[in-house]
Write a structure and sequence with these properties.
The protein is built from 19 helices and 14 strands. It is α/β, with parallel strands linked by helices. It folds into 4 domains: 120 residues, Rossmann fold, CATH 3.40.50.2300; 166 residues, 3-Layer(aba) Sandwich (Rossmann fold); 80 residues, Orthogonal Bundle (Helicase, Ruva Protein, domain 3), CATH 1.10.8.60; 40 residues, Arc Repressor Mutant, subunit A. The strands form 4 sheets. Strands 2-1-3-4-5 form a 5-stranded parallel sheet, with helices on both faces. Strands 7-8-11-6-12 form a 5-stranded parallel sheet. Helix 2 packs parallel to helix 3, helix 6 packs across helix 7 and helix 13 crosses helix 15. The radius of gyration is 29 Å and the shape is elongated.
Length: 458
C-alpha cells in the first residue's frame, strides 16, 4: 500500500506543487488549507506523514501538532516554516514533530526528509512486531508433556519445521492445543523471524473474512476509503494460521486453494495479482474427511492441506501429563495472584487423574485457576474442585463418556436410552442439531425425549 501524506498549508500553489511532486514519487496525498480541516482529515483517512505549515488561518500550527499527537502518536509530522526561528523549532520538536524545514526549501531536501521519516516509522513498527513475536515465541511455542503421544507430536513438529513451505493440517478436539502446535511449527522454522498471522474462520462473518484475508482496494465497497492489506499479504515471508478452517465457506475455500497452489491472490476489488511467499497452517476440530464425503468441504483443498497432518491427542489419552500440566498452571497462577500453592492433596490428585477432561487442556487450565482463586491453603483439596470432578468419588472408574453415566446389563431399555441420550448431549456440548444427527432422530423427537427424561444442560 502506498504511504499516505497530508499537506497542510494555506498557500494553494504550495499545496498543489507538493501534491503533484509527491504523487509522481508514488505517494498517496491529501491537501487542506486549515488546521480544522487537517484534524478532520486524519480522523477519516489513514495518514502516515503530515507536512504541516506553522502559520495557518484558523489555528496555530503548534496547537494543531499537539492535537495530531493526541489523536495518533505514530503519525510522522514535519513542520514547514517561513521563519528561521530556533524557539519555534525547539517547541515543535518537544511537542512531537519528527523534524522541521525552512521555507523556501529545495524539493530534493524535502523528499529526503520524507523518506527518512517514513523509514523511521517502518523501523519502529518492525521493532515492535519483533518484540511481540519474541514474547510469543518464548511463552506460547513450547509443548509440555512426557506422554508417548506428546513425544510423537513434538518429533513430528520438529520434522515439519525443517521444511520451508509444506502446508500443514492440525486436527484435534477443542482445547487440545492446536494453536500451540502452529506456533511451534512457525517459531522453530526458518520463517521464525517473519510474521505469523492468525485468524479464526468461525469467529468472523463470511463477508468480512474475505477482506480480512485478502485485503481490499480503495473503493472496493462503500466504506473502503483507503486500500488495506489482508493477512495473506501481511504474512508474506512467514506463516498464515487458519483456525477452524472447517467453518470456511466453499467460495473462500477455492480462493485459499489458489494461494496454496500458486502463491498468488488478488485483493477484493483489485485487478492485479499479488505474489507472496507464505506457509499455510490450518486447524480444525471437525472431521474434514467426512465433510468432503458430504460435499461440505472441497476435496482438492483437503488433500492440498493434508500434506502433513498433526493429530493433537485429547488429554484423557495422555494421563501422564495431567499433573505435570496442572503444576505448570499452578506456578503460572501463583505469579498472577501472588499465592504460594504447592500442589494437590492426594485425594485431589486422584480426582484430577480419573476425570475424563472433555474440554482438554483448556478446561484443565480453567479448573486450576478457579481452584487457586478459591483456595486459602497450601494445597488444592477436593473442596475447591468443580462438581463434575468430585462426582468421580462415587464412580468405579473414570473411563466413560461422563461421570456416573455408564450402562449396565441389568438396566431397563428405557434407562439405557436415557443414559445414552445424556452421554451424547454432553459429549456434543448440548448442540441439539448435531445430537439429532448422531442419534438419527428429528429435533422434535430429541426435544420430546429431553423433556421425558428431565435432562438439563448442567
Amino acid at each position: 500500500m502506498k504511504p499516505s501524506i497530508l499537506i497542510v498549508d494555506d498557500d494553494e500553489v504550495m499545496r498543489q506543487t507538493l501534491s503533484d511532486v509527491l504523487k509522481r514519487r508514488g505517494y498517496e496525498t491529501f491537501s487542506v488549507g486549515s488546521g480544522h480541516e487537517a484534524l478532520a482529515t486524519i480522523k477519516k483517512n489513514e495518514t502516515d506523514l503530515i507536512l504541516l505549515d506553522m502559520r495557518l488561518p484558523d489555528i496555530d500550527g503548534l496547537e494543531v501538532l499537539k492535537k495530531i499527537k493526541e489523536f495518533d502518536t505514530e503519525i510522522i509530522v514535519i513542520i514547514m516554516t517561513a521563519y528561521s526561528d530556533v524557539q519555534t523549532a525547539v517547541s515543535s520538536m518537544k511537542s512531537g514533530a519528527y523534524d522541521y524545514i525552512n521555507k523556501p526549501f529545495e524539493l530534493e531536501e524535502l523528499k529526503l526528509l520524507i523518506e527518512k521519516g517514513l523509514e523511521t516509522k517502518s523501523l519502529i513498527h518492525e521493532v515492535r512486531r519483533l518484540h511481540r513475536q519474541q514474547n510469543e515465541k518464548n511463552l506460547n511455542s513450547h509443548i509440555y508433556g512426557v506422554s508417548p503421544q506428546i513425544h510423537y507430536v513434538k518429533e513430528l513438529i520438529s520434522m515439519i519445521s525443517k521444511t520451508y513451505k509444506t502446508s500443514v493440517l492440525i486436527q484435534g478436539e477443542s482445547g487440545t492445543g492446536k494453536e500451540l502446535a502452529a506456533n511451534a511449527i512457525h517459531y522453530h522454522s526458518k520463517r521464525s523471524d517473519q510474521p505469523l498471522m492468525k485468524i479464526n474462520c468461525s469467529a468472523i462473518p463470511d463477508s468480512l473474512l474475505e477482506s480480512e484475508l485478502f485485503g481490499y482496494e480503495r473503493g472496493a465497497f462503500t466504506d473502503a476509503k483507503n486500500g488495506k492489506k489482508g493477512l495473506i499479504e501481511l504474512a508474506d515471508g512467514g506463516t498464515l494460521f487458519l483456525d477452524e478452517i472447517g467453518d470456511m465457506n466453499p467460495f473462500l475455500q477455492s480462493k485459499i486453494l489458489r494461494v496454496l497452489e500458486g502463491q498468488t491472490f488478488m485483493r477484493v476489488g483489485g485487478e492485479k495479482e499479488i505474489k507472496v511467499d507464505v506457509r499455510i497452517i490450518a486447524a480444525t476440530n471437525k472431521d474434514l474427511e467426512a465433510m468432503v464425503r458430504e460435499g461440505l468441504f472441497r476435496k482438492d483443498l483437503y488433500y492440498r492441506l493434508k500434506v502433513m497432518v498433526v493429530e493433537m491427542p485429547p488429554l484423557r489419552d495422555r494421563v501422564e501429563d495431567i499433573l505435570l500440566l496442572s503444576n505448570l498452571f499452578i506456578e503460572e497462577n501463583n505469579r498472577e495472584y501472588n499465592k504460594n500453592i504447592k500442589g494437590f492433596s492426594e485425594e485431589a490428585k486422584k480426582l484430577m487423574i480419573q476425570y475424563n477432561w472433555p474440554g482438554n487442556v483448556r478446561e484443565l487450565r480453567n479448573v486450576i485457576e478457579r481452584a487457586m482463586i478459591l483456595s486459602d491453603q497450601e494445597v488444592i483439596i477436593p473442596k475447591y474442585l468443580p462438581f463434575e470432578l468430585k462426582q468421580m468419588e462415587k464412580c468405579p472408574n473414570g473411563h466413560f463418556e461422563h461421570p456416573c453415566l455408564s450402562i449396565k446389563d441389568d438396566m431397563s431399555l428405557e434407562k439405557m436410552e436415557e443414559i445414552h441420550l445424556s452421554n451424547v448431549l454432553r459429549k456434543l456440548e448440548w448442540n441439539k442439531s448435531k445430537a439429532s444427527k448422531v442419534l438419527g432422530v428429528s429435533r422434535a423427537t430429541l426435544r420430546a425425549k429431553i423433556k421425558k427424561y428431565h435432562l438439563e444442560n448442567n
